[in-house]
Hints:
Mean pLDDT: 91
CATH architecture: Orthogonal Bundle
Number of strands: 3
Number of domains: 1
CATH class: Mainly Alpha
Radius of gyration: 14 Å
Shape: globular
Number of helices: 3
Largest sheet: 3 strands, antiparallel
Helix content: 55-70%
Distance between the termini: 45 Å
Strand content: 5-15%
Amino acid sequence: MALLEDSHSAKKVEExxxxxxxxxIVRTMKARKQLGHQQLLAEVLSQLAxxxxxxxxxxxxxxxxxxxxxxxxxxxNPSTYKYxx
Length: 85
């Protein structure tokens, strides 16, 4: 029984961290409108210093936000993202 609760809470923590990563990305992009990948990554990592997200996880969430049309890649420079209001 305790094992089930542990895995459930770990899953919940992971889910909450995902939401925190996406919120930080959207907050940053809403303020800046356009940013390069490295600048966005640095900004998000500094905002989320309380749990140090893996840069690969941040990239995964950026891709997810692009798919859901919160962000888009700059057609002239694929490593730059634009915020879509």
